[in-house]
């Protein structure tokens, strides 16, 4: 099957889907399973080409997976996968810091002959309630007192407490904020 000249799924993949076989993500959506169960699922070796890059994607038989989940090994694997999902979710909580003021350097843009050129720098300051540092991203959400928010690079601003002291930001170790 092609879309604008790019391979979306092979014809054999479409035939497999009509015969009750699905990719891991489709299977997990249909059965409401966590994606982490993919490493435990019984697989009979069937795969098909999918996507514009013709990736080899494993296909699982829906009926066999449903029957396997009713067995003891299937139930144990499902419990393990759910525990892994909970642990992953707990490790990806945002780090929130209560602040009074946030300031950063901004640049105004000059437009000359239809082209944007960087103008002079100025310091912009806004009142904020908190700053949320996103796990696994070098971004932060700044929440204003009225509840509206915007995102900035986590290292692109300074934070101050209500008493005027600077607040240190959580350190980025390359994977998450600490």
Describe the protein's topology.
Blueprint: E1 2-3, E2 6-7, H1 11-18, E3 21-22, H2 24-31, E4 47-50, E5 55-58, E6 60-61, H3 62-69, H4 72-91, E7 95-98, E8 101-112, E9 115-127, E10 130-133, E11 139-143, E12 149-153, E13 158-160
Strand % is 25-35%
Domains (count): 2
Please give the share of residues in helix: 10-25%
Taking the sheet with the most strands, its summary is: 4 strands, antiparallel
Average pLDDT for all residues: 77
Note the overall shape.
Answer: elongated
Question: How many helices?
Answer: 4
General description of the model:
The chain has 178 residues and is of the alpha+beta class. It has 2 domains: 89 residues, no CATH class; 66 residues. It contains 4 helices and 13 strands. The strands form 5 sheets. A 4-stranded antiparallel beta sheet has the order 7-10-11-12, with no helix packed on it. A 3-stranded antiparallel beta sheet has the order 9-8-13, with no helix packed on it. A two-stranded antiparallel ribbon has the order 1-2. A hairpin with a 5-residue loop joins strand 11 and strand 12. The longest helix is centred in the middle third of the chain and has 20 residues. The mean pLDDT is 77.
Key terms for this structure?
single chain; 178 residues; alpha+beta; 2 domains; four-stranded antiparallel β-sheet; three-stranded antiparallel β-sheet
Summarize this entry quickly:
With about 180 residues, the chain is of the alpha+beta class. It has helices at about 10-20, 25-30, 60-70, 70-90; strands at about 1-5, 5, 20, 45-50, 55-60, 60, 95-100, 100-110, 115-125, 130-135, 140-145, 150-155, 160.
